[in-house]
């Protein structure tokens, strides 16, 4: 029997808001000393109440709009009740039946090169939990809780089960990251934990359309590479079970990086009943059609739009356009450089190649500097021949020793003279041309 | 020492601000009384002698310097031990929080401190505010000063008793299903459950968040308005707290009730102690004599009140108590008493998948119907008058083994909680030596009107002057 994977993804992204989701503590906790970004609200102290962060709501709506979701005009927060030592209040404030946005999609390039739509059921907002660290202190094994992360705004994007391979899952997740970065709402860095991927995987008989009776959720995935590995492993594992005529168990499995395998964490019998109910401390939220329109109209250019525009406007190949639009900063850098290059009559193709191949440090190197560097490298000579001859003569007059050496047969001396000419012309000359002129004048 | 135990805030404030009475003198008297009576009444869990004395000295100094002060300056008050008080332990009446010292003040406490009140202490309560008698406290039951063998009503038991017994001139309480109105009624004091959202809940340990109201207990209606003047208002920390401006609640409090339409809901006058019923109807007659018009009305969904309340409230309780999971606060879940456990189990069940629609969601729908009853009625009448409790203060131990009987003590109070409308409990007489109270209920944010009605009635009757013999 042949099987095909049915994969849906839940992706969590921490929003780069100034303050946390429900309090005024700084949300920028990365690297901070444990429990220094805390207050009664994010510690869940008795009596403390949440106050919703409007910036986080805007970010979620912006992202939802960017992935083609419709923004709900009536929304609310709900409590998701469960126990875990990193969960200060014993419930997480999340969104259940009225998320900020629903029914969108992203396009990825399928393995056969075709564009493929992955439908997105919703993008909603919730709060992050604290973080547990297991340690040994005074020979005692202990678990420490750091609440710096508690209450950081977390956006969850849930896809439909449209993904069919580990490769597609990776592409989809990368597209989510790219879009989040384009919207300026998160650095979506998997290593730092500001983006987390949880794939749901099951297999069905090739050609059938119904969803399988089970699904396996994968957790503990810290990079795109591991996401791919974990999914591939899971496909293999489930195929083997199905081939034996059995059905894989519905469960949550964790990915073990060292061994490259998935391990059962929680089975269906222990599945949570989250007992969702409307968060009574936060009144429902209402928005107008005009507000949603405004969010949509004010979206920055999306990665796909930029990609298409780059191909058209700059005459780039799909490969170059894809690489240059991968990151907004690079895309912007290229556009600046292309503008500057236009004045110096350097083709966008040349600039694109330079950026792609040389990978200049775009933080330090101004686009205009890049253009003049390319100019220098590509122009045969910058200085007219008569001026060059004068420079060469001057150099010969000033470097008697090197001239003598050269005449004695020391070829290296010529390099000294070329260097001197380059220096004199401030680099604005093709070294080959300087060399030729030097040889000419030295031998005559 | 002079006996100040019968002073009202209104009187004491005038004396303090005119430098006739020192805040220190009054505070020391109240602290002394609180300490002395606590062995009998057990109305305080913690007495804050040092803090109160320091505050009183500060007030006296400011007044000596000619500083204009809020009428509450130097007034000794009690705070239900459910309100977070910075650096003062806050137990919620439970051993689980026996050693918990908050790092912040509840917004209402902050406002009261800004008005320079003297906090006498943290008052006793049914643990987590679960209860109608005060007997559920892990720190022992509070006793009714009018009859020591009887309960003072709960859950703001210590607050009502501290005011009634003259240990404080006012006390903060919370009312989720009647927890201010019931003890006020049982102890012959005035208790306000404001409109939901009128007073910030921030910092008050949550029982059932969509029902919890922050109110207070005083000897007189005027005093009650003085306190609301300080606690009411918008709070950036409580999103459910209204942005609607609060009133000056003492201004025009003497306004006559002439022409005012008072509704008497028939559902609240069926099948209970006829003596209590008669006292309430007498009170209504008194108001009629003062010029109010009395109308018979109906609130048809009243009978579903307790059932609805006992779905929604435990559901929220189960979620709100989840943070006391044994990981922090130094004590484990073993410290939860049987009432808290009962509500956690009930609420967990009613929120569970498969039961949510049948219980929680259905209850929320009925809640809307009950609210619509009130909205409709307030198109016809200005206020509603009804009893607070179907019974007189009962004996300690009488209902502890029967939770359902205990829950039914709330039968007349839960509807105002479910609908969010304000209700003022005002003393309206005695049966034997036991006090009886009535509720004056009005539309959303009509506290000012409730005070005018309560004040007019109080001027005629002065029940508050009948203090317990202790």
UniProtKB/TrEMBL annotation, chain A:
One of its GO terms (biological process) is translation. It is an enzyme of class 6 (ligase). InterPro entries: Asn/Gln-tRNA_amidoTrfase_suB/E, Asn/Gln-tRNA_Trfase_suB/E_cat, Asn/Gln_amidotransferase, Asn/Gln_tRNA_amidoTrase-B-like, GatB, GatB_C_1, GatB_Yqey_C_2, Gln-tRNA_amidoTrfase_suB_CS. The keyword Amino-acid biosynthesis does not apply. The keyword 4Fe-4S does not apply. One of its GO terms (molecular function) is asparaginyl-tRNA synthase (glutamine-hydrolyzing) activity. Keywords: ATP-binding, Ligase, Nucleotide-binding, Protein biosynthesis. Residues 332-442 form the Asn/Gln amidotransferase domain. Its EC number is 6.3.5.-. SUPFAM superfamilies: GatB/YqeY motif, Glutamine synthetase/guanido kinase. It catalyses: L-aspartyl-tRNA(Asn) + L-glutamine + ATP + H2O = L-asparaginyl-tRNA(Asn) + L-glutamate + ADP + phosphate + 2 H(+); L-glutamyl-tRNA(Gln) + L-glutamine + ATP + H2O = L-glutaminyl-tRNA(Gln) + L-glutamate + ADP + phosphate + H(+). Belongs to the GatB/GatE family. GatB subfamily. Heterotrimer of A, B and C subunits. Allows the formation of correctly charged Asn-tRNA(Asn) or Gln-tRNA(Gln) through the transamidation of misacylated Asp-tRNA(Asn) or Glu-tRNA(Gln) in organisms which lack either or both of asparaginyl-tRNA or glutaminyl-tRNA synthetases. The reaction takes place in the presence of glutamine and ATP through an activated phospho-Asp-tRNA(Asn) or phospho-Glu-tRNA(Gln). This is Aspartyl/glutamyl-tRNA(Asn/Gln) amidotransferase subunit B. The lineage of its organism: Bacteria, Candidatus Curtissiibacteriota. The gene is gatB.
TrEMBL record, chain B:
It comes from Candidatus Curtissbacteria bacterium RIFCSPHIGHO2_02_FULL_42_15. NCBIfam families: gatA. This is Glutamyl-tRNA(Gln) amidotransferase subunit A. It comes from the Bacteria. GO terms for cellular component: glutamyl-tRNA(Gln) amidotransferase complex. Residues 25-450 form the Amidase domain. Signal peptide: none annotated. One of its GO terms (molecular function) is ATP binding. InterPro entries: Amidase, Amidase_CS, Amidase_dom, AS_sf, GatA. Its EC number is 6.3.5.7. Belongs to the amidase family. GatA subfamily. The lineage of its organism: Bacteria, Candidatus Curtissiibacteriota. HAMAP family: GatA (MF_00120).
